[in-house]
Design brief:
heterodimer, A: 316 residues, mainly alpha, elongated, B: 331 residues, alpha/beta, 8-stranded mixed β-sheet, 4-stranded antiparallel β-sheet, 23% strand
Chain lengths: 316, 331
């Protein structure tokens, strides 16, 4: 009310600062009701078309992999000797291999393993890598030296060779393979987090938190890590994709999960002999790998935008 | 009068650098009583912020500190890190220079005040939230209920500094250290923030240590002034003693360099030269190379802080020769 009168009548009259501030707020369109962080993040997420595509794509693929085989009468090792090297048909949706095993069932099982390995590896590397990176950057000095040198050491080691050795020794089940992959994978996330925290910790809010009596533990976990979530969300999806590809590589080289179990990479490896007369056999698991990785990356992109409180909900 | 709330004795802070020790604070002693507003004035690098940080033990690890900081019956420099953490934010709170970066961008302002409260108090989140809204109201944030649920980037600079003040006073500190609280704000907002600080001081009765390089700001708000130069205390006294009876050439040069809106001054009077290197301070008085009144003894001896009157002291060999200033605009 006071605002309106001062605005219209007396430009030389004293204008109350409160009214001016209120006016400034209205101009910025801030007077709508406040929303919780979760709700805002969700709104930003559902406005991100690619991210939604990624999410539903992943859900669809996962459902197909978990539920699909139930509709098939075949198991991953049952052989249909009359239909060897068959193309896609009603009985065998993706066809069969040279000893008559159903390729849809095998692709689904392989895809499940690939997704499980990718997810577990990404989660393990992220948790460990984030804590290590943040600790190194926050404390600096000797702590940083030790962690950074350990990271450098892991980086110069040819990953594939180490993985091959360890996978041979420990990689008999999917979660052990995942552990080995995570033991190398955390370095990437750790480096990114370290870089972000190095710049974050110089900001005054860290000093302000210390001046308010916050402990190192509280500063790292309550103040620094939430600021890193956006970057980590992207890294985790990139890592998930990379892990699935790496696991496929290992399986392709015969170092992944052991038969009769299979994975997407294993399926590509199995099919490589028949690439000339049956290219579809190579393509189906290959396309699955590409689809999963793509969906995960889209999802990560959307998550980053959604989790940043500074980004606005897309208009229109 | 009662015992002072804060007694700083012979506080020295040095930083180990590759080329030697940088003496950032040299032999600083002062007292602060409850409810008093003390302004610490000086150029950049004169040691005013380092003094405050060292008092709160928030200095970088490379700092070497000697002296005593007696606060409310305990020596802060002798406390363990754990005990010191309990003092920070509850008995002594601090407001920082840049409100743009002093709030965590990923939490709502209300959340951050709640956290500040709950570090030191056993209080439910709901209770703390109610208190946070009250505090925002107290520092003049309009519509505090709605504003508490907003993020720092939705606040303007002045509003953020108000939020910082709300956070700082959330545990009724006995001492509030404001490190250049208005430097990053524009002039009109500066006045509002100073007013809030003043109101808060009236309401809570806490002592304030106001660190600034703006003498104009000091004139309206402080009880006592302390001028620092090149890591040392150069003059200390009541506001009138510093502004009208200054006995120190450096303080006078500072006063002379304030631009005057009404007077006939049509050019600025900067202090010639630069502050000395703290790594290799000049011999004798550190202000000597820039001082218009330097004499031979200034080259040889560092002057001592000489008492002038009851609460007034000046670090100058010729302190007693200086004529009292009549008015600020006399020159």
């Amino acid at each position: 009310m006071a605002l309106d009168t001062s605005h219209d009548t007396a430009p030389d009259g004293p204008t109350s600062t409160a009214a001016l501030l209120a006016a400034a707020d209205d101009l910025e369109g801030l007077s709508e009701k406040p929303k919780s962080f979760g709700r805002l993040a969700w709104e930003r997420f559902i406005h991100h078309k690619l991210a939604l595509f990624g999410l539903f794509g992943l859900i669809f693929i996962a459902l197909a992999f978990f539920v699909g085989p139930m509709f098939s009468e075949f198991d991953i090792s049952t052989t249909d000797v009359l239909n060897r090297r068959a193309g896609p048909s009603r009985d065998h949706w993706f066809g069969t291999d040279e000893i008559g095993r159903d390729l849809f069932v095998r692709t689904a099982r392989g895809g499940r393993y690939s997704m499980q390995i990718g997810l577990l590896t990404a989660v393990l590397s992220t948790v460990f890598g984030t804590i290590m990176g943040a600790t190194a950057a926050y404390f600096g000095k000797a702590v940083d030296q030790i962690i950074s040198q350990a990271m450098n050491l892991l980086l110069v080691v040819p990953a594939l060779v180490v993985l091959a050795v360890f996978a041979l020794k420990f990689g008999s089940t999917w979660w052990r393979l995942s552990l080995v992959l995570a033991a190398l994978g955390w370095v990437r996330i750790s480096r990114v987090v370290r870089g972000v925290v190095l710049s974050l910790k110089e900001q005054e809010f860290v000093m302000a938190a210390r001046a308010a009596g916050a402990s190192h533990f509280r500063i790292i976990f309550r103040h620094l890590l939430p600021n890193v979530i956006g970057v980590v969300a992207v890294e985790i999806t990139l890592l998930l994709g990379a892990t699935i590809v790496l696991e496929s590589t290992l399986s392709f080289l015969g170092l992944g999960v052991k038969p009769p179990e299979t994975s997407l990479g294993q399926l590509v490896a199995d099919a490589k002999g028949s690439i000339d007369d049956d290219p579809i056999r190579v393509l189906t698991p290959g396309i699955m790998i590409v689809l999963i990785v793509l969906c995960v990356n889209f999802l990560g992109d959307g998550l980053r935008d959604a989790l940043d409180p500074r980004s606005k909900v897309e208009r229109g | 009068m009662s015992d002072p709330l804060l007694t700083v004795q012979n506080l020295s802070v040095g930083f180990r650098a590759k080329t030697g020790v940088v003496q950032a604070v040299t032999d600083v002693s002062f007292e602060l009583r409850s409810g008093e507003v003390l302004a610490v004035v000086g150029e950049s690098g004169s040691g005013k912020s380092v003094t405050a940080l060292a008092m709160m033990r928030l200095h970088p690890k490379s700092a070497v500190i000697t002296g005593h900081v007696q606060f409310d019956g305990q020596d802060l420099l002798a406390l363990s890190e754990e005990e010191m953490r309990k003092v920070r934010g509850s008995d002594i709170a601090m407001i920082f220079q840049d409100p743009m970066t002093a709030l965590n961008p990923v939490f709502t302002v209300g959340n951050q005040i709640v956290e500040a409260i709950r570090i030191h108090n056993d209080m439910s989140t709901e209770q703390a939230w109610t208190r946070a809204v009250e505090l925002l109201d107290l520092v003049g944030v309009p519509e505090p209920k709605r504003r508490a649920a907003q993020y720092p980037h939705e606040y303007s600079g002045g509003m953020r500094q108000r939020a910082m003040i709300a956070m700082a006073i959330s545990n009724d500190p006995k001492l509030l250290i404001a490190d250049e609280p208005t430097t990053a704000l524009d002039v009109t907002v500066q006045a509002q923030v100073m007013e809030v600080l003043h109101d808060v001081q009236q309401a809570t009765g806490s002592a304030i240590m106001l660190i600034t390089h703006d003498l104009g700001l000091v004139a309206g708000s402080a009880d006592r002034v302390q001028v620092m130069y090149a890591s040392r205390l150069f003059e200390t006294g009541s506001i009138d003693e510093i502004f009208y009876e200054s006995c120190n050439p450096y303080t006078r040069a500072l006063l002379d360099s304030i631009p005057d809106l009404e007077g006939v001054k049509d050019e600025l009077h900067p202090i010639p030269g630069n502050p000395p290197s703290l790594l290799n301070p000049p011999s004798g008085c550190p202000f000597r190379p820039r001082c218009p009144m330097a004499i031979d003894v200034c080259r040889e001896e560092v002057p001592q802080l000489q008492p002038i009157a009851n609460s007034h002291a000046s670090r100058c060999h010729r302190a007693h020769e200086l004529e009292p200033l009549t008015t600020g605009a006399a020159s």
